[in-house]
Design brief:
Helices cover 19% and strands 27% of the residues. The chain is α/β, with parallel strands linked by helices. It has one domain: 4-Layer Sandwich (Nitrilase/N-carbamoyl-D-aminoacid amidohydrolase), CATH 3.60.110.10. A six-stranded mixed β-sheet has the order 7-4-3-2-1-16, covered by helices on one side. A six-stranded mixed β-sheet has the order 8-9-10-11-14-15, covered by helices on one side. Strands 5-6 form a two-stranded antiparallel sheet. Helix 1 packs parallel to helix 2. The two termini are 33 Å apart. 43% of the residues are buried.
């Protein structure tokens, strides 16, 4: 499976600019990648105290990405500020907001003869809306005030795309190994991480990505942003994808902007787990809500 890591600056609280950024970058991946992974809260930046930026699941952010996924044939992963009500009412429902991680999967092409045209893209038009799976952020970053406006996930979900099982972690979730634990040895094949992780704590980011991949015997692709946000924090990236032996498949230098594609061999991963079945010796536990 080919996973594209997109590391770039996010325009603070500017949804239209950020949606255009995403559309341009993902359009260029048509025919080259299976999945495009964007930073956390790609449409706004980490604007935890701006409930007016929230959208519902049928809002402009999701609708445009569903169209984009169908146009390009590329699944899209990130998170956004999600509200159960319309934008005009969002300021009164802060406790109900979620930092909603998602995977939007392009619809299969049937016998449609109609084609769509997008910059660099020409693909037959699917007959249905792109599907979506969601995973809300479980661990809310209290130091940044996220717990004042958002509610945490109540359950862990595993996405499946093209026969590959995927666990999505949203930024701070990366710090919590119990939430990410691959208990059966085959809960998932790949961890995807979307984040806004500032440079003052980047050493922990580097260490935690490697730890989650090692202890769960899985591939991992983690995407951070670069640039400065509206709160004065700087982000220097360090997005990376590791193979089963913790060798980087792709990595980004400090403050590097761009797109890189990691090609994950799932059969090789399964063979690695069979040859070295460490999961059989793990401590068993039950996750409490």
């Amino acid at each position: 499976m080919k996973i594209a890591l997109l590391q770039y600056p996010i325009a603070w609280a500017d949804k239209e600019t950020n949606l255009r950024y995403a559309e341009e970058r993902i359009a260029a991946l048509a025919g080259k990648a299976d999945v495009a992974v964007l930073p956390e809260m790609f449409a706004t930046g980490f604007c935890t105290d701006h409930p007016e930026l929230a959208e519902t699941m049928d809002g402009d952010i999701i609708r445009r990405l569903q169209t984009l996924a169908n146009q390009t044939g590329v699944a899209i992963v990130s998170s956004f500020i999600c509200s159960p009500v319309a934008n005009s009412e969002a300021s009164n429902t802060r406790a109900k907001l979620t930092n909603r991680g998602f995977m939007i999967k392009p619809s299969p092409i049937t016998n449609s003869s109609e084609s769509i045209h997008y910059p660099l893209v020409q693909r037959p038009l699917p007959n249905s809306v792109a599907s979506i799976e969601v995973q809300d952020k479980r661990h809310l970053y209290a130091h940044g005030g996220e717990d004042l406006f958002f509610q945490p996930a109540q359950e862990r979900c595993i996405f499946e795309y093209k026969g590959v099982k995927i666990l999505l972690l949203v930024c701070y979730d990366l710090r919590f190994p119990v939430w990410a634990r691959n208990q059966s040895g085959s809960d998932y094949d790949i961890i995807l991480v979307v984040a806004n992780w500032p440079d003052i704590r980047i050493q922990y980011w580097d260490a935690l990505i490697a730890a989650r991949a090692t202890e769960n015997q899985c591939y991992i692709a983690a995407v951070n942003c670069v640039g400065n946000d509206g709160m004065g924090l700087h982000y220097n990236g360090h997005s990376v994808a590791y193979d089963t032996r913790l060798q980087p498949i792709v990595s980004f230098a400090d403050d590097e902007e761009g797109t890189k594609i990691a090609d994950f061999d799932i059969e090789k991963l399964h063979h690695f787990r069979e040859v070295l079945p460490l999961w059989k010796d793990i401590d068993r536990f039950e996750l409490q809500q």
